[in-house]
Specification:
This protein is of the alpha/beta class. 31% of the residues lie in helices and 20% in strands. It is built from 17 helices and 27 strands. The structure holds zinc ion.
């Protein structure tokens, strides 16, 4: 892949339009001091650059661009279409969204445009055209940043009509739609496309997150993701007319449920995302999100936003402790980021983000802890740039993540309301993370042949072709792990009849007859073949062996003696089936056996509590070693004698890493 940037972009959202001009030169002076080389501008400036339907005014934006150009700052140019100007909503109320409760919104907030409003599309296109024509050929833009954090839903009449068109294209006949959604249930059969209504609280919705008919609700999710994606593509195509080369992105949000990011990534030149862990988010969860964002395009990504100090919108917005922002930034780079950008560079004077951290605090000076930490990191990244840009990990383990599956699993009514998709994936990721195994987060249509191991926890929805692809992978020598609540339904959420886990049954060598749900205070016990006892909770499959071998059996409840974890030889490979939500030690044990069988190695030779991550370029292997624990930890022995890229010092067997310490080692391949 061609490297999109020559250096690690270091900077972030910059809103000089919110400040008097005398501040601007002070900003530039402080950016220079902090080694900031990039600014993301014009993200929320629609009302400023188009003060009325008839008028555009680029005078201020021109000045901002020129100022940043003089400072040799790489410009990430927003398109400003993520928050509507008041004049537009007043004149054309239809541009605003109708919410899940059916309320049509007035002017206010952001991410407030109906994606299917032709009026919104017309004005967003016109604005993008103005921007692309003005700045697209100047060579001054390093990256285009369309809209901002796309998301949300609209349930207006425009969207309802567009949904019917989308459905007609998908199903062709109303009979096919009725069958897909199982509309004979409750006599919901529709005879005309116009009888279809959006599945919000006024339709099939139950509460805010359940549905009476998963088929229509999952299709609405797909439709909504596609509708918003069309908005992105519209702006992208306009920019491309004027600017043939500059990368185009929009900032995503990790495991955000609303949009099918694998589908989106196909339309983006580079993935960027906003990383806002809360005070108690496990580091493994953040690492998983980075790997997912890298996995979307299987290439390095941009960190478009993180806070240098604290958020404002979470319940408890703890400060990042000294060294934490630096360690978090290196974790981001270690997992594939080629940029480190902050939201934002100068802290807002008012409105809801005034307590959101920024590089320049309300005090307005560089004499702050945060500014000093940002400056120190900037100096380090300046030196590190060429070494890491464009490099990638080399993972032999793929973990399947699928938005259709995410939606379907969480819409389903029963068997257990505590079943959450991301939590399930994270349990497996977390075990691999603790062992420092390199992992790719992959889509269901990935090239499985690149991997030795595929993990597919709670693969509830097995769509057409998936079982065959997995069978081919296993028959060819791959090791597959899947779990309870897998192989249950097809792409419209109708059950694969003939016994669970449906199309996975033959290769797993088990038949799941029933699924027991346990309340939070309940658990079952299991025993492994070697006599180790463990516990499990949440869901427990009652299954029968059909060729598989039991690795563990239940030792409690009326199904004591039935298999809980199995392994089935299939072709040249094997399928591990985990029938219950295992405790951590048991899950580690199953994965340990599986990884040994597959012959997959870790990033580090010894067991360590440090995070050890590897990126590889054509010539170098770059290892990032970070201490996210509260106590000092010894450097693994294999790195003794190597040089720390950050300090230039030779590491030895006595080297200790204090909390948030980072060591980076580059070795020739
Ligand atoms: Zn709408």
């Amino acid at each position: 892949m061609k490297k999109p940037f020559k250096r690690i972009l270091y900077g972030g959202d910059y809103n000089p339009n919110q400040w008097p001009r005398e501040i601007w030169q002070e900003d530039m002076r402080m950016f220079r001091n902090a080694h900031i080389n990039s600014a993301t501008i014009n993200v929320f400036s629609w009302a400023k650059i188009q003060p009325s339907e008839e008028t555009y005014d680029f005078e201020e934006l021109d000045d901002i661009v020129e100022m940043l150009e003089q400072e040799e700052c790489d410009i990430v140019m927003g398109t400003s279409t993520a928050a509507l100007p008041a004049w537009m909503v007043k004149r054309y109320p239809e541009v605003a969204r109708t919410d899940y409760e059916g309320r049509h919104h007035k002017f206010g907030h952001r991410h407030n445009a109906c994606p299917n409003s032709l009026v919104y599309q017309k004005y967003a296109a016109a604005l993008t055209e103005q921007l692309a024509r003005r700045y697209g050929k100047t060579g001054k833009v390093a990256c285009w940043h369309i809209n901002n954090e796309y998301g949300g839903e609209c349930y207006c009449e425009n969207c309802e009509k567009a949904f019917r068109v989308w459905l007609k294209k998908k199903y062709k006949t109303i009979e096919a739609l009725n069958e897909a959604w199982n509309m004979e249930f409750w006599g919901h059969t529709v005879y005309d496309w116009d009888e279809i209504v959006l599945p919000n609280a006024l339709g099939e919705g139950i509460g805010t997150d359940k549905t009476a008919f998963a088929g229509i609700s999952i299709d609405y999710r797909r439709f909504n993701s596609d509708s918003i994606l069309e908005n992105f593509k519209m702006e992208r195509d306009i920019i491309r007319k004027y600017d043939p080369e500059t990368p185009i992105t929009t900032n995503l949000m990790g495991t955000y449920p609303g949009l099918d990011y694998f589908k989106w990534a196909k339309e983006m030149d580079i993935v960027s995302w906003d990383n806002y862990p809360s005070y108690n988010t496990p580091w493994s969860q953040t690492a998983m999100c980075h790997d997912l964002m890298r996995g979307l395009k299987d290439q390095p990504f941009m960190l478009m936003e993180q806070t240098p100090s604290q958020q404002n919108w979470q319940p408890y917005n703890s400060l990042k402790k000294p060294g934490q922002m630096r360690a978090q930034s290196y974790q981001t780079v270690a997992h594939g980021a080629d940029t480190i950008q902050f939201f934002q560079l100068r802290r807002s004077v008012g409105a809801c983000e005034k307590f959101h951290g920024a590089v320049i605090a309300h005090a307005g000076t560089e004499n702050t802890r945060v500014f000093r930490e940002v400056t120190a990191l900037g100096a380090e990244l300046e030196r590190l740039g060429e070494t890491v840009i464009g490099s990638m990990p080399d993972a032999k383990i793929g973990v399947i993540f699928d938005w259709d599956n995410y939606w379907a699993l969480e819409y389903t009514s029963g068997p257990n309301c505590d079943l959450k998709y991301v939590d399930q994936i994270h349990q497996y990721y977390s075990s691999l993370y603790r062992g420092n195994y390199p992992v790719d987060m992959i889509p269901v249509d990935a090239d499985f042949s690149r991997y030795k191991v595929i993990l597919a926890p709670v693969l509830y929805m097995v769509k057409e072709g998936m079982a065959e692809a997995l069978e081919k992978f296993v028959a060819g020598g791959g090791i597959l792990l899947t779990t309870f609540m897998s192989g249950i339904v097809g792409q419209s959420d109708n059950v694969h009849l003939g016994g669970y886990p449906g199309p996975l049954r033959e290769m797993a060598g088990v038949w799941v007859e029933e699924i027991d749900a346990l309340a939070p205070e309940q658990s079952n016990t299991i025993r492994f073949a070697d006599g180790t006892d463990a516990s499990c909770r949440l869901l427990c499959d009652l299954m029968h062996l059909e060729g598989a071998q039991a690795l563990a059996e239940y030792t409690s409840n009326f199904y004591a003696g039935m298999p809980a974890v199995t392994r089935n030889a299939y072709g040249k490979g094997a399928v591990y089936y985990v029938g219950a939500n295992l405790d951590q030690a048991a899950l580690d044990k199953v994965l340990g056996q599986l990884l040994t069988e597959a012959g997959v190695g870790s990033n580090v030779e010894e067991s360590t509590e440090l995070e050890v991550t590897v990126r590889q370029s054509k010539t170098q292997k770059i290892t990032f070693i970070i201490n996210f624990k509260a106590q000092d930890l010894p450097l693994p022995a294999q790195f003794a004698g190597k040089t720390d890229l950050l300090t230039g010092q030779t590491l030895d067997t006595q080297t200790m890493l204090a909390p948030y310490d980072v060591v980076i080692v580059a070795e020739n391949r």
